[in-house]
């Protein structure tokens, strides 16, 4: 709750802005600190995942029993850290051309998707080599659901916003859905990572988990760090005042569109 | 993704409204269907939790080894179903007095809190009788965090919005934080339930989990239903057009306040 009581982020204080660059749209005062904190948390999550796999699971390799460990590492880097950062692009790049920002958002999601795919191949390949069953656990059901939703969201987002690009009216109607499902898929990714972490702990530690084994404590801490990263990213995405301001050209288009649609449906407020 | 492609809920279509009661503020056309769907999902989640505990865990009782089963049942009813419904109060009761709606929101959260407390006592008491360790798992760490946050949120919300009530300016500043942390605590509650479900499955089924045991399949389905309930509740909370319209008196107050604060800080956009 600390964040909620911090005077810089309470309610309308979200709107306090300072202009760091002459002539550019002003940056909300608290935003850079929250973004910096999110990156510190995100990098800590990746580092602690690496430390957990290195210290207690023998490290990471493709051609051995360590292939399994490629899975959590790739999923945390791709579907947690990079996916989270892709969502933050529109809060961080506020004055660059809209198209550049869009391409960066799409590219970060492509990197995340490819890294996640490597992580998926690693676990299926490992299961095959060991003769283990696939897709029986809640973690795997959630994981497949998240991966399919992520892929569909990318394809639909690309078709609407990049190439070939839908009409302005269609984009405006789809945008809130894209944002909602983007945030939802990110939250589901973090939740699925927690389920996987728990599964890995219980399979290896069993009843020793209750003896506060160092691995258990480190992995629980990693779980809480994952939750914190998720919450901070969503916190940055929430205030309307922290959204990327629309540029002069977009505002003109948006006003035209608003006039047109309000003429169409006067009761839409 | 089905919801995102439904024409009634795409982007600005959120704003399509019909007036069901003459003289009352109109109700967004798709909202009642989404609320009905959320209730169907919520009740299904409670029923499937009951079915799981009844069919595979011997049912629920306080004075026996079945005391443990009180824990998941209470947590799902309190911190998932009732908490979710408490968040929806402001979307469902749109024309009742603001104070009545507030009291209902607060009361639903009190019921949720009390039921969750019974669920907590059940598991700690069960652990004590069996001589099991407490608070070693990621599920328990997340659970305690959620319960403390939920309690603090209730106390702070009560102090600001009900009794004695803060000034209009303080309430307006705190409201976005209350809403953000309310939704976050709800999501964390659903996530913690999934971790608990997974723990219960792995402790009992062990390696048999991978043989697609009926209990495993039922519990995985329960996990997905919990996720769906969480997503639908958040989906209903998201569109600005679906928020409870402020009543004439509140609008006048809000305008005065806006004029005052904008006079105070001209750069706050």
TrEMBL record, chains A, B:
Function: Transmembrane reductase that uses ascorbate as an electron donor in the cytoplasm and transfers electrons across membranes to reduce monodehydro-L-ascorbate radical in the lumen of secretory vesicles. It is therefore involved the regeneration and homeostasis within secretory vesicles of ascorbate which in turn provides reducing equivalents needed to support the activity of intravesicular enzymes.
Names of required cofactors: heme b
Main subcellular location: membrane
Pfam families documented for this protein: Cytochrom_B561
Membrane topology, as annotated: Multi-pass membrane protein
Subcellular locations according to the entry: Cytoplasmic vesicle, Secretory vesicle, Chromaffin granule membrane
Keyword Metal-binding on entry: yes
One GO cellular component term noted in the UniProt record for this chain: lysosomal membrane
One annotated GO molecular function: metal ion binding
Gene: CYB561
InterPro entries, per the entry: CYB561/CYBRD1-like, Cyt_b561/ferric_Rdtase_TM
Transmembrane segments: 33-55, 75-93, 105-124, 144-166, 178-197, 217-237
Catalytic activities: monodehydro-L-ascorbate radical(out) + L-ascorbate(in) = monodehydro-L-ascorbate radical(in) + L-ascorbate(out)
Keyword list, A-Z: Cytoplasmic vesicle, Electron transport, Heme, Iron, Membrane, Metal-binding, Translocase, Transmembrane, Transmembrane helix, Transport
Record-given protein name: Transmembrane ascorbate-dependent reductase CYB561
Occurrences of domain Cytochrome b561 (ranges): 37-238
GO biological process, one term: ascorbate homeostasis
